[in-house]
Design brief:
Elements: E1 10-18, H1 24-41, E2 43-52, H2 64-77, E3 82-87, H3 93-103, E4 106-109, H4 110-121, H5 125-158, H6 165-206, E5 209-215, H7 221-229, E6 246-249, E7 258-262, H8 272-277, H9 283-287, E8 290-296, H10 302-315, E9 323-328, H11 336-349, E10 354-355, H12 361-376, E11 380-387, H13 394-400, E12 402-408, E13 412-419, H14 421-434
Parallel strand pairs: 1-2, 1-3, 3-4, 5-7, 5-8, 8-9, 9-10
Antiparallel strand pairs: 6-7, 11-13, 12-13
Helix pairs in contact: 1-4, 4-5, 5-6
Length: about 425
């Protein structure tokens, strides 16, 4: 039997400039996030180079001394080939080009790293289209800068003004990008319309309530999704494991039936183009009756992550949707005493929150009851009469209502039920038609 071929490790270094307005804790949290992004993309980060500056160096992001330090490390100390410098900010093409030239290593800024992860993980047609729009949007300004550089060099060589051949070629590329973005946007509009129609039909047909899981990437949303729905959804300890919206029914099935959807995770400094491009992916949050805001209780920086989620939800106008804060991964917070102390502190600061672990069935069951209580607060009790001649509709009653009591006489069956008023009205109409 042939032995497994191990993938060759890809080595990188991280680099970041700390500006005076950024606190040490915020700076360290951002760097830790960059290293997690690198891990998701398949990089092994060997070393992190940091520099405190009043502003970014306009020529190469880092100061010349730090650039020389990276060059020396890559050439003489690393002991392996450094494939890339991962920069914890979005930098200009000229900064990236100069940094690459002086260090001898490829350069990827934070935005490019995130775009590559999205590109690798997108599965559905909608997600792939959204990612392509974001990548093209990232490329367009870089082509403009390349055009300026080509024009400047062309004038220096020829001694005359006007556009060089390189600039004309760049203009052609830019036009192709604009055309492709327009084409993709039309596709997305069509897919959104189709998806909304399907969702409306599904909810009208089944009377389904809807819940959307939102929160920071890697907060445990997919694990909670699987626990609530009993479905086999991808669970991976990496950032952006879920890009495509997954929709499942709350398990065991309830009255009313509840749809649970997972959404793409949020992240600090998510490129604005991606927020816009992934708006349709986050539409589940807009359409939901209840948001489950999942937060990693074991992460020391969870308050910053909570703020990021709040900000993004406000950007897509989902901040008006009722929300339940769920502090997940409490089982990762030390021993039992530490967990109890953390739980008490969280409940004191966020009185209506749920503190739990998605891996503890009893706590998942309590969350399920909390979700059902939210949707049952507007249910009404009523009595339905089903004549014996219409017993084929008996299943509809159990599907759309909670049956509290059943009795029968010579004419038919009587059901005392709890359900949504609209569902009860539709059932009565059906019974009238067949009786």
């Amino acid at each position: 039997m042939p032995s497994e071929v191990k993938e060759k490790p890809i080595y990188a270094v991280a680099a970041a400039v700390q500006l005076p307005t950024v606190s040490d804790s915020e700076f360290e949290a951002s760097l830790a996030e960059l290293r997690e992004l690198a891990k998701t993309l398949g990089f092994t980060v060997l070393r992190t180079f940091i520099q405190k500056r009043a502003s970014f160096d306009t020529t190469g992001y880092l100061g010349i001394g730090k650039r020389q330090e990276i060059e020396h490390y890559a050439a003489h100390e690393a002991g392996c080939e450094i494939e890339a410098i991962l920069v914890d900010h979005e930098i200009s093409p000229s900064q990236a080009r100069n940094l690459e030239k002086e260090t001898g290593c490829g350069v990827m800024d934070r935005t490019m790293v995130i775009l590559e992860i999205f590109h690798n993980n997108a599965r559905s047609r909608a997600a792939r289209a959204q990612v392509e729009i974001a990548r093209l949007g990232y490329m367009a300004p870089r082509l403009r800068e390349a055009a300026k550089l080509a024009g400047s060099q062309g004038r220096q060589r020829s001694g005359v003004g006007g556009r060089g051949a390189g600039e004309s070629h760049t203009e052609l590329d830019r036009r192709k990008i604009r055309d492709r973005i327009a084409e993709l946007q039309l596709e997305i509009v069509a897919m959104e319309a189709e998806r909304k129609t399907q969702r409306a039909r599904r909810q009208e047909r089944q009377g389904l309530a809807s819940v959307a899981l939102v929160g920071y990437t890697n907060a445990g949303k997919s694990t909670l999704m699987r626990a609530l729905t009993g479905s086999e959804v991808l669970v991976a300890n990496k950032l952006f494991a879920t890009l495509d919206t997954t929709v499942r029914t709350l398990h065991p099935e309830s009255v009313p039936r509840v749809l649970v959807s997972d959404t793409v995770g949020f992240i600090k400094n998510l490129p604005h183009g991606l927020v816009a491009s992934f708006k349709s992916t986050l539409d589940e949050a807009l359409d939901a009756a209840l948001l489950l805001h999942v937060i990693d209780a074991s992460d020391p920086g969870f308050e910053r992550q909570l703020e990021v989620t709040d900000t993004v939800l406000a950007e897509i106008a989902a901040d008006v949707v009722p929300r339940l804060r769920i502090f997940n991964k409490i089982d990762h917070v030390g021993d039992a005493a530490a967990q109890a102390e953390c739980t008490a502190a969280l409940r004191a600061k966020y009185p209506d929150c749920v503190v739990m672990s998605a891996r503890r069935p009893d706590e998942v069951a309590l969350l399920r009851q909390t979700i059902l209580a939210f949707f049952r607060q507007n249910l009404v009790e009523a009595e339905l009469f089903l004549p014996w001649s219409a017993q084929q509709l008996r299943g509809e009653i159990f599907a759309q209502c909670e049956v509290l009591e059943e009795r029968a006489d010579a004419a038919g069956a009587f059901f005392r039920v709890r359900g949504e008023s609209d569902s009860l009205s539709r059932l009565r109409e059906q019974f009238d038609l067949v009786s």
